[in-house]
Amino acid sequence: MQGSQASPIIVALDFPSDQPALALAGQLNPEKCRLKVGKELFTSSGPALVRKLQQRGFEVFLDLKFHDIPNTAAGAVAAAADLGVWMVNVHASGGEKMMTACRERLERFGTDKPLLIAVTVLTSMTEHDLSGIGISVSAEEHVSRLATLTKNCGLDGVVCSAQEAPKLKVEQGTAFQLITPGIRPASADKGDQQRIMTPAAALKAGSDYLVIGRPITQAADPLAALEAIYAEVVGL
Ligand SMILES: O=c1ccn([C@@H]2O[C@H](COP(=O)(O)O)[C@@H](O)[C@H]2O)c(=O)[nH]1
């Protein structure tokens, strides 16, 4: 495979403005990673920043985790498709009607439609956090339930922890894409992430894509950090 098609790495550009994001993108190789634009950067810098990253050769995952009434969420994913992003997401807890509306709205984009995935249980959450919002099953069990709902709505995959990947690959099949944040090289700080795994272990567990932010973006040498992770995972 050529280009970023060969790399499972998605670098999370969590920055407050476009200057540091573009400066970092300028150091990274689009053949070795895709980029993720999330709520902080999109709120400050918007579609113009996404277009600049695309012009530099990067495929963009627009991580805005839409969660709204079906018509509003469907309009939002269609706007993301107009922007030409590679992947866009919603919250699975938005439910069947919302996810189905989003999938159906993207049909008009034909082969140009982005991958549509759904967030299950945030990787920063523990079972204690779930219990605080009234969910009394394990994180793994709740992720499984939401993944089943997501697949039944015809979406392409889910955001989950790599810890849940082995179970999901058995339950949902190998074509159902698993996008896993909470990736931490052995030496990296955990920060606010809870359900974590190293890059190599995550791929072996069944992750299709590894979302990695601070271990690369906050490294003294981000390019070296990306190269080290790339060397760890490519060829596994
Ligand atoms: O469950 C989720 C869903 C999304 N994220 C996002 O991924 C990155 C992770 O960044 P790190 O710096 O590597 O922790 C970040 O943009 C989150 O918004 C997630 O972590 N967990």
UniProtKB/TrEMBL annotation:
Leader sequence residues: none
Keyword annotations from UniProtKB, A to Z: Decarboxylase, Lyase, Pyrimidine biosynthesis
GO biological process, one term: 'de novo' pyrimidine nucleobase biosynthetic process
Top-level taxon of the source organism: Bacteria
Residues annotated as catalytic: D63, K65, D68
One Pfam family here: OMPdecase
Keyword Lyase: yes
Positions with a binding annotation for substrate: 14, 36, 63-72, 123, 184, 193, 213-214
Physiological role: Catalyzes the decarboxylation of orotidine 5'-monophosphate (OMP) to uridine 5'-monophosphate (UMP).
Subunit relationships: Homodimer.
Similarity section: Belongs to the OMP decarboxylase family. Type 1 subfamily.
Protein name stated in the entry: Orotidine 5'-phosphate decarboxylase
Species of the source: Marinobacter psychrophilus
Organism phylogeny: Bacteria, Pseudomonadati, Pseudomonadota, Gammaproteobacteria, Pseudomonadales
Gene designation: pyrF
